[in-house]
């Protein structure tokens, strides 16, 4: 197939054929974890390629040279000659297609793909000769990692083996090495979707849309369009009734399922409230009381609804999904349930490094809580205005324990909203919280600050908090 024929076919079909082989001039753009996985895959298929990375010493360079000593590797900038001669550019998600060197190559007829596209071509080719494995595709501005992980747990509880990857965990091409996988569950970023043309998911969702990556997208419209690509060729679309931007603009095969924070329509997913609390519901059928879940917060209840809808779309057993949902503690450092002692629940939201994230954690946890929140906050506020904490603290927090450099600034912003305690360390904060908490209360680490005045990272801070809490619970 000649280069001109390839370009003509792509323009007509608006989709790369995926049939070009050894005669194709292919360049991987960007090394690192994703680029190395692409190199391993292409090499395993006997397909020639070159590699470009703009960094002088990119991560994975030594491993790349060891594994592929005969593969041309250019570092320290774009090799324009290679790019302009390419039929396909395998572009890492961190590199914008608007990058001038990439854009010029695309104008010259090169097709931009990514690791997800290579994966989809392999899966589609395999399904042509055997039964296609279900593929669940998940994107959104927020919550996609939680939903992806939760769906993976639901697959496991159903007695099947999930292959969880994409923008989370295992590079997606590495999943192809495991023949025992029964269901693929992929978290996909807008960057990955830009270079994906052959995704035909069994079930796909856009959880929500809010302005994000505006340094990469000129307007929200372009960001929205990138997210919408997840629905292309999917059988069942799962979308958020509260967010019109998640509604599929592309036709789907089997139909659509909605989820909402309000009462659901017949056969759809939503929340119903009664004297016993808030229920995850399908139509009028109350399925799980949120008090039975370790995941807390209305945003997480929506995540749970989306996961249930996706699981049902691929035929998972309902009871197995409920079991997985009730056991799921949440992602590490993201309103993660750590355990319960003497009627007091402990939650780690060390990733709440700004005021907005902390407010979301307080409100999400506080709603439906039998008691009140003992909040641990403080650290490096990076010049933030903490006044937006005040309404949430006043409504849901009985005791506010402050640590770190900007504890005094938080105190000044929320003065009078809760009883305030200042301590010297996170160790002291946990010890004091254990003394103050009563049955029905929850202790929440949601600092509203970065960690660098006391810890190496939010992970370091969260791990130390979890270590201290686990020591309390074990004792």
Task: Give the topology.
Layout: H1 3-13, E1 26-29, H2 32-44, E2 50-53, H3 61-67, E3 73-75, H4 80-84, E4 88-91, H5 100-107, E5 111-113, H6 115-127, E6 135-139, H7 144-157, E7 162-166, E8 183-187, H8 190-194, E9 203-206, H9 220-228, E10 236-240, E11 255-259, E12 269-274, E13 277-282, E14 285-289, H10 298-313, H11 318-327, E15 336-341, E16 344-348, H12 355-366, E17 373-377, H13 389-396, E18 397-402, H14 407-414, E19 419-422, H15 426-436, E20 442-445, H16 458-474
Parallel strand pairs: 1-2, 1-4, 2-3, 4-5, 6-8, 6-9, 7-8, 9-10, 10-11, 16-20, 17-18, 17-20, 18-19
Antiparallel strand pairs: 12-13, 13-14, 15-16
* CATH C-level label of the largest domain: Alpha Beta
Major β-sheet annotation: 6 strands, parallel
Q: What integer is the average pLDDT?
A: 92
Number of separate helices: 16
| Count of extended strands | 20
Q: Percent helix among the residues?
A: 25-40%
Class from helix and strand fractions? alpha/beta
């Amino acid at each position: 197939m000649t280069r001109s024929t390839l370009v003509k076919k792509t323009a007509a079909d608006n989709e790369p054929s995926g049939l070009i082989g050894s005669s194709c001039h292919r360049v991987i753009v960007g090394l690192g974890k994703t680029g190395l996985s692409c190199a391993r895959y292409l090499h395993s298929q006997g397909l020639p390629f070159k590699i470009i990375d703009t960094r002088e010493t990119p991560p994975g360079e030594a491993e790349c040279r060891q594994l592929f000593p005969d593969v041309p590797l250019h570092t320290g900038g774009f090799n324009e000659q290679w790019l302009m001669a390419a039929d396909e550019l395998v572009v890492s998600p961190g590199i914008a297609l608007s990058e001038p060197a990439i854009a010029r190559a695309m104008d010259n007829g090169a097709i931009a793909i990514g690791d997800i596209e290579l994966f989809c071509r392999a899966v589609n080719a395999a399904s042509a000769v055997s039964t296609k494995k279900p593929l669940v595709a998940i994107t959104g501005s927020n919550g996609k990692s939680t939903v992806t992980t939760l769906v993976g747990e639901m697959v496991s509880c159903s007695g099947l083996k999930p292959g969880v990857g994409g923008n989370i965990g295992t590079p997606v091409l590495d999943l192809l090495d495991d023949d025992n996988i029964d269901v693929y569950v992929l978290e996909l970023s807008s960057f990955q979707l830009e270079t994906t043309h052959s995704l035909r998911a069994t079930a796909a969702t856009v959880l929500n849309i809010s302005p994000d990556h505006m340094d990469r997208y000129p307007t929200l419209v372009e960001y929205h369009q990138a997210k919408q690509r997840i629905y292309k060729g999917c059988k069942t679309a799962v979308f958020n009734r509260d967010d019109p931007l998640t509604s599929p603009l592309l036709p789907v095969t089997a139909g659509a399922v909605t989820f909402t924070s309000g009462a659901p329509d017949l056969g759809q997913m939503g929340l119903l409230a009664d004297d016993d609390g808030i229920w995850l519901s399908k139509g009028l059928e109350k399925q799980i009381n949120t008090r039975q879940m370790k995941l807390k917060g209305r945003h997480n209840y929506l995540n749970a609804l989306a996961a249930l809808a996706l699981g049902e779309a691929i035929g998972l057993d309902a009871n197995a999904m409920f079991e997985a949902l009730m056991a799921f503690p949440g992602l590490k450092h993201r309103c993660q349930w750590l355990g319960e002692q003497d009627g007091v629940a402990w939650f780690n939201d060390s990733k709440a490094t700004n005021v907005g994230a902390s407010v979301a954690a307080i409100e999400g946890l506080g709603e439906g809580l039998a008691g009140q929140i003992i909040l641990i906050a403080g650290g490096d506020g990076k010049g933030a205005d903490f006044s937006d904490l005040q309404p949430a603290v006043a409504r849901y927090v009985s005791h506010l324990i402050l640590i770190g450099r900007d504890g005094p600034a938080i105190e000044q912003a929320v003065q009078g909203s809760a009883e305030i305690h200042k301590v010297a360390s996170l160790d002291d904060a946990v010890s004091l919280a254990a003394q103050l908490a009563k049955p029905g209360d929850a202790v929440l680490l949601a600092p509203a600050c970065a960690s660098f005045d006391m810890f190496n990272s939010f992970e370091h801070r969260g791990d130390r908090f979890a270590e201290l809490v686990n020591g309390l619970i074990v004792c």
